[in-house]
Specification:
The complex is a heterodimer. Helix content of chain A is 70%, strand content 7%. Chain A contains 16 helices and 8 strands. In chain A, strands 1-2 form a two-stranded antiparallel sheet. A two-stranded antiparallel ribbon of chain A has the order 3-6. Chain A has a two-stranded antiparallel ribbon with strand order 4-5. In chain A, helix 2 runs parallel beside helix 7, helix 3 runs antiparallel to helix 4 and helix 8 packs across helix 10. The N and C termini of chain A lie far apart (52 Å). Chain B is mostly helical. In chain B, strand 1 and strand 2 form a beta hairpin. In chain B, helix 1 packs parallel to helix 14, helix 5 packs antiparallel against helix 6 and helix 6 packs across helix 7. The chains are: A mainly alpha, B mainly alpha. Chains A and B meet through helix 2, helix 3 and helix 14 of A and helix 3, helix 4, helix 5 and helix 14 of B. The structure holds CIS-heme D hydroxychlorin gamma-spirolactone and protoporphyrin IX containing FE (2 copies). One protoporphyrin IX containing FE binds next to helix 1, helix 4 and helix 12 of chain A.
């Protein structure tokens, strides 16, 4: 019993830590590339609005990066403090992947971020641009390696077990394991969508506060465009990901769909309350045949149900149903909301421009076209990417339970023999710190947006009057 | 010396060396920026901005050496990683909280509204101090072979204090180089006043180590080993005397040799560290697990080794680039 308590607490603690951590990589991965885009546009056009946009977002990038780094350091210690069994069993495979992440990604980003943040006036323009590029590249590299490891835990291959320890036999197979391409693509897209909506939301917030500067227009358009372009790709990618999961982790898909009995022409359950004790859904609202159609591309395709994953003796071999079922719906629901909102925004902006001024090169969209309700909807959607990303990870990770490495070791085998009260104490402290930091983080973003909207941030619009070289005027000491 | 014809023999050795090296680099580099954090409350607000400026471009990369060190422990000696970190559960946790607080405070204090800045300043100091104390505590317990009794806790508490003072010493030495005028004078004084932490820290660990185990007693104090080891304490003593005299006369005219205290402090840390490495080799968990028993499969180690040989020189290269770009006296931090 003691060990079980420690297990549950360690799981909650790990989930809390990684959930907090992933919020910030999700932002830094794509925001790095967006900053690089702003920087390149500035170099091309010498238009101050791009520099103003760069300046505004680089602060948020720096803040997110710091949050990502410190919570990431926590993550790398967690393996030893709470999950020693993990490295003892699959260390020969997880080890090199983690090591390559540190060597090829962490140092790259950590060193060049100094130049990117503070080097603008110290290094030549090309070097500053290169530093920005390398930071973006580094965050993507680190996402790649950690996703390789995580995907391998879902669809392991390229190894053999000797005396209960995994030994690598084929590194190519380990790195390009079956779910890796889907997971990596889906995660990178998730990151870009998160950032797109963050930029759109914060810019919409500045707009409703009365900020009509040129960079606010540019940023709003960039944010909404990223969202509108990528969300269909993401939905398509998600579908492919689901097909892949159906092949390798059918129990997870059954839980996502809330499907108890194996059947042909399985319905898509839009809403239900899954009841694991009674092994059925309550208050189900379904579309007949659609789940089979989505997952097999045939209306009468056969889908495996959860009851197939119960052993003769009654041992349950599938993941807990309700959390997987619900988090999957939260993710897809958020995706749909993103689709609606971003397309509606683009349509209104495009129509305004088309009706009133015709298409001027480089100006396809007019922010004035956005109706009030849409602007106000964009503001709370600033953090919608976080919701979808967390929901997605919960689907994936809870859906893998009771396995830690699918078919190789269970989560229970990995847990440390640390007294439960100790874990409880550290868990509560972590949670308190994380909640406080989240408030501070969102508060500071809102504060920076307000400050910029009031205009005491050296904005592009002011500079066109002062006639000074834009860059020089743009150096608030923060 | 290991047998270089046999990978199962030289790979663990190579990884132990690499890990040792990254811990040393970490202690020196993050040591100075943690130290600056510990000295923080002693400075005026304007000076504090300068102090932050002197570590701003570096702290993140400095901490990455810790990630590399614990990463190498994790990948090369997984069993030891589990054993050490579960034994040190609480101090590791305190260190992590410290690192979280100071890392984010660093960014928040520059962006938050003015009346919140004081809070973040305080957290920056608290976080730095917590980290340093926790690391010192872990050092003490490690030297004591991870035994957990009141006596070892008492010893670990001592090393915790010494390491925190030692970090503020190397932090002050860094500031002597990176600052000027009033703040530089202050830094010289801080360095002089915290030198005792280094002396007592090295002394305590050196005295305790041979007393904890008879193996180490033999290794240190039997003839002729004692002759090989003798240069270490003698050199350290000389360096300390040199530092002491130099710090009484600094800063020199025209800011000459302002880098010297930091350089000498680094050598001193390196010597002390070498002594420890000599004592514990070939154990990775003192008296319980050697690097050969704990090592991962040679094939996996080899994959990492190839990568490390290519990448580590590149990392060194661009780290030097960063320190070159931000050389000279620190100014207030500006995102431009
Ligand atoms: C999909 C992306 C992703 C995922 C799933 C994870 N991370 Fe992460 N991590 C990043 C993407 C990232 C990043 C984008 O590269 C970060 C965020 C901010 C940063 O500086 O780098 C980072 C930072 C970061 C750092 C600090 C690096 C530094 O000092 O610069 C560490 C030690 C870790 N992570 C460790 C982990 C561990 C042990 C994880 C899983 C158990 C993990 N991360 C999941
Ligand atoms: C960053 C996005 C991630 C999120 C949000 C996430 C979330 C979660 C959650 C919620 C669980 C708990 C499942 C349960 O116990 O019911 C879990 C389990 C686990 N995940 Fe992830 N995970 C992420 C990435 C990773 C990665 C990249 C790794 C490995 C390198 C990993 C390793 C583990 C381990 C070891 C467990 C088992 C411990 C546990 O059950 O809590 N996760 N994760
Ligand atoms: C709307 C259509 C979407 C579909 C059909 C979809 C599909 C999926 C599926 C099937 C999984 C589980 C993968 C597994 O079995 O392991 C998943 C995971 C995930 N989803 Fe989605 N998704 C959608 C939208 C989104 C959106 C909008 C985001 C974020 C902005 C997102 C972020 C994630 C993340 C971060 C994961 C976990 C990592 C992974 O396994 O790739 N998804 N998604």
């Amino acid at each position: 019993m003691e060990a079980l308590d420690t297990l549950i607490l360690s799981r909650i603690q790990f989930a809390a830590n990684i959930s907090f951590h992933i919020l910030f990589p999700t932002i830094t991965i794509a925001l790095g590339w967006v900053l690089f885009f702003f920087r390149v546009r500035y170099a091309q056009t010498r238009d101050d609005k791009w520099m103003a946009a760069y300046r505004f977002w680089v602060k948020i990038f720096a803040l997110s990066f710091a949050m990502g780094v410190v919570s990431g350091i926590t993550m790398s210690f967690q393996f030893g403090t709470n999950w020693p069994g993990f490295m003892e069993t699959v260390g020969n495979i997880a080890g090199p992947l983690l090591a390559y992440e540190v060597l090829t990604a962490f140092f790259l980003e950590a060193v060049f971020i100094g130049i990117m943040l503070f080097g603008f006036s110290r290094v030549p323009g090309w070097l500053h641009m290169l530093a920005t590029f390398l930071v973006a590249f580094g965050t993507s590299m680190s996402a790649f390696w950690i996703i390789v490891l995580n995907s391998w835990m879902h669809t392991p291959q390229g190894f053999e077990m000797i005396d209960g320890v995994a030994f690598a036999t084929d590194w190519w197979a380990i790195i390009f394991n079956p779910s890796m391409p889907y997971r990596f693509a889906h995660m990178m897209l998730a990151s870009f969508l998160t950032v797109g909506f963050l930029i759109a939301g914060v810019s919409a917030f500045r707009w409703v506060l009365g900020d009509r500067s040129r960079e606010v227009r540019a940023m709003l358009k960039v944010g909404v465009t990223i969202g509108a372009l990528l969300i269909p790709v993401q939905i398509f990618m998600g579908d492919l990901h689901g097909l892949n999961t159906k092949e390798y982790q059918p129990a997870k898909v059954a839980a996502m769909e809330g499907l108890w009995e194996t059947q042909a022409g399985a319905p898509l359950v839009l809403f239900a309350i899954p009841d694991e004790a009674a092994r059925t859904n309550h208050m189900a609202f379904e579309i007949p045949g659609l789940a089979s159609f989505i997952l097999t591309h045939k209306w009468d395709g056969v889908l495996k149900g959860l009851n197939d994953f119960v052993a003769e003796d009654g041992t349950v071999l599938h993941p807990p149903v309700a959390p997987v079922f619900w988090s999957f719906r939260v993710m897809v629901g958020t995706g749909m909301a993103m689709l609606l909102l971003s397309w509606a925004s683009v349509w209104f902006m495009w129509r305004r421009r088309a009706l009133h001024q015709g298409r001027i090169t480089g100006h396809w969209l007019a922010v004035e076209g956005l109706p009030k309700p849409i602007l106000w909807a964009l503001v709370p959607m600033a953090f919608s990417g976080w919701v979808a990303t967390l929901a997605g990870w919960y689907t994936t990770e809870i859906g893998r339970q009771p396995w830690l490495v699918q078919g190789v070791m269970t989560t229970e085998m990995a847990v440390a023999d640390v007294p439960a009260p100790l874990v409880l104490g550290t868990l509560i402290t972590y949670l308190a710190i994380y909640v406080a930091l989240l408030f501070a983080y969102i508060g500071v973003i809102a504060y920076l947006a307000r400050k910029a909207a009031k205009g005491d941030d050296g904005r592009a619009i002011d500079m066109s009057h002062s006639g000074k070289a834009g860059v020089m005027a743009l150096s608030p000491a923060e | 010396m290991p047998d270089f014809a046999n990978p199962a023999d030289w790979l663990p050795w190579a990884f132990a060396s690499l890990m040792g090296l990254s811990i040393l680099i970490y202690v020196v580099l993050d040591g100075f920026d943690l130290g600056v954090g510990i000295l923080f409350p002693l400075a005026t607000p304007a000076e504090q901005d300068k102090m932050i400026g002197s570590i701003g471009p570096f702290w993140d990369a400095n901490e990455t050496w810790l990630v590399l060190a614990v990463g190498l422990l994790l990948v090369a000696f997984p069993q030891a990683h589990g054993m050490i970190l579960t034994a040190l559960y609480l101090p590791v946790f305190i260190m992590l909280v410290g690192l979280i607080l100071r890392g984010v405070a660093f960014e928040f204090r520059a962006k938050a509204r003015d009346h919140h800045k004081r809070l973040w300043n305080r957290l920056f100091f608290t976080g730095s101090l917590m980290t340093a104390l926790a690391q010192g505590f872990m050092l003490g317990l490690y030297v004591m072979g991870l035994e957990q009794t009141w006596a070892t806790y008492a010893f670990a508490t001592l090393t915790a204090v010494f390491l925190a003072v030692g970090y503020s010493f190397i932090g002050a030495a860094w500031l002597v180089h990176k600052t000027e005028a009033e703040l530089q004078h202050k830094s010289v004084r801080w360095a002089r006043e915290s030198l005792w932490g280094v002396v007592l820290g090295i002394g305590a660990v050196s005295l305790a180590t041979p007393l904890v185990s008879t193996r180490l007693f033999e290794k240190w104090l039997s003839f002729p080993q004692v002759l090989y080891l003798a240069p270490l304490p003698i050199l350290s003593g000389l360096l300390i005397v040199w530092l002491w005299r130099m710090l009484r006369a600094m800063p020199f005219a025209d800011d000459r040799r302002s880098w010297l205290p930091f350089a000498v402090a680094t050598s001193l840390f390196a010597l002390a560290y070498l002594g420890m490495a000599y004592s514990f080799y070939p154990y990775v968990v003192p008296e319980r697990l050697t690097i050969y028993e704990a090592a991962s499969a040679p094939e996996s180690l080899f994959i990492i080794f190839v990568g490390a040989c290519v990448v580590v020189p590149v990392i060194a290269g661009y780290s030097v680039l960063a320190y070159t770009i931000f050389r000279g006296k620190a100014t207030e931090l500006r995102y431009d």
